[in-house]
Write a structure and sequence with these properties.
single chain, alpha/beta, Rossmann fold, Helicase, Ruva Protein, domain 3, 7-stranded mixed beta sheet, two-stranded antiparallel ribbon, 10 helices, rRNA_Ade_methylase_Trfase_N, SAM-dependent_MTases_sf, Ribosomal RNA small subunit methyltransferase A, 16S rRNA (adenine(1518)-N(6)/adenine(1519)-N(6))-dimethyltransferase activity
Amino acid sequence: MKHIPRKRFGQNFLTDVSVLNEIIRTIDPQPNDSMVEIGPGLAAMTRLLLKGVSFLHVVELDRDLVTRLQKEFDPAKLQVHAGDALKFDFSKIPVAEGQKLRVVGNLPYNISSPLLFHLAEIAPLVQDQHFMLQKEVVERMVAEPGSKAFGRLSVMLQWRYHMQLMFIVPPTAFDPPPKVDSAIVRMIPKTAPLACDIKHLQTTVTKAFSQRRKVIKNCVAGMFTEAQLLQAGIDPTLRPEAVGLEQYVALANLLKSS
């Protein structure tokens, strides 16, 4: 029975075989990997991953798809976790001693940012992440200071990960085709992120990018003085997208100390 993609779950199923094969080459699954796939859908990527890994965990919200997956795959090879990835505790997935978790998936675009922040909480337990996301989102993730795409998402994720846009995927690779281009991103957690309290960094960055058209001294007025901006190595007349990660971390540390 054909599964009808559900808009409320953000379902766009990847069907292009050449794109699927390119993603698998990028991930390079190995037999002993501890791997979890988010949103396996109709299992196009799942089947290819299982040619590389000995065992795979998948997290799927759609109950109809959960049933299909459980019927199709041997539980000795695939464990299906039925539920919302935004609420799923990825730290509970067992990994072999000395190993870290590998996370992959074609992420629903409507929850991509909150899901990335949810996963960032377990970054020390993760070896790498490979995701299909809306191209515009990936461009924001990897943007350099000075770019119009550089913003809150850029700072928060670049503080935690090394990231690389691997390649672009056109809408025609999906059923149904989305209205935008997609991209594959590789995310490798940093072993030693810049010393910083994440909550203070979040507060600082949210305030800084709340009024992008203003210069940063006006954006953070009431939270930081001009003297504190200078202390953090920031020209107060710059726009927030022109300020680098290191400077935002310095500001966050000033906020904590005050």
